[in-house]
Specification:
It contains seven helices and four strands; from the N terminus they run H-H-H-H-H-E-E-E-E-H-H. By secondary structure, it is of the alpha+beta class. The strands form two sheets. A two-stranded antiparallel sheet has the order 1-2. Strands 3-4 form a two-stranded antiparallel sheet. The longest helix has 19 residues.
Length: about 200
């Protein structure tokens, strides 16, 4: 007795594009995530990921608006912040040292030594880039006097600090792309579980 052939099994849903995991990133999208966290420039990240220079700006912006990509970027940034210890509080503390530094925070002795004044915060020395001393002779002959002239230069760190702040989500570039808010939401969402655990 002949049996009717068994019906063919449906293809594995995992092989069908319609049933693929929607949160899975393509190889190029993963490359984009890796490149974006280098300098937080979506356009350059798109170019380095292999997208056309002509469309890199729009593609970079579109990628940042994709929840899967934004979530992946947030995860990388969070892991980096933990690993390096660069937090928003540390960046703000350093910005405050630079922003509120004042020449009255420093005293210069006759010997050219620079110390903190009584009213200076103890971190004020971190605002100094360099201290230069030179000897100046005033007068001639037996009336000649030597004087120590001290030049104090403060650090110019807004640029590096802004970049560090961008890496922890403190600053965002709203002109270069329009996907910033999606990325910010993903960063905040990734922080909620850890904050809840510590509560």
């Amino acid at each position: 007795m002949n049996r009717a052939p068994a019906p063919r099994r449906a293809r594995d849903n995992a092989r069908s594009p319609r049933h693929r995991r929607r949160d899975a990133l393509t190889a190029r999208e993963r490359r984009f995530v890796a490149e974006y966290v280098v300098d937080l420039n979506a356009t350059q990240a798109a170019i380095r990921s292999g997208y056309s220079r002509r469309t890199a700006g729009s593609i970079g912006s579109e990628n940042l608006q994709k929840p899967d990509i934004a979530s992946a970027i947030a995860t990388v940034l969070e892991a980096r912040a933990v690993r390096t210890g660069i937090t928003q509080d540390r960046v703000l503390d350093e910005l405050a040292i630079l922003a509120f530094s004042d020449v009255t925070h420093y005293r210069v002795s006759d010997a050219g030594d620079v110390t903190l004044a009584a009213n200076a915060p103890r971190e004020a020395m971190r605002a100094l880039q360099s201290i230069k001393r030179r000897i100046v002779t005033r007068g001639r002959g037996t009336r000649a006097e030597r004087e120590v002239v001290v030049e104090i230069r403060l650090w110019d760190k807004p640029g590096p600090l802004k970049l560090a702040g961008q890496h922890v989500g403190l600053f965002t570039e709203k002109v270069e792309h329009s996907g910033t808010l999606v990325l910010e939401d993903a960063v905040m969402a990734s922080r909620q579980p850890s904050e809840a655990d510590g509560a």
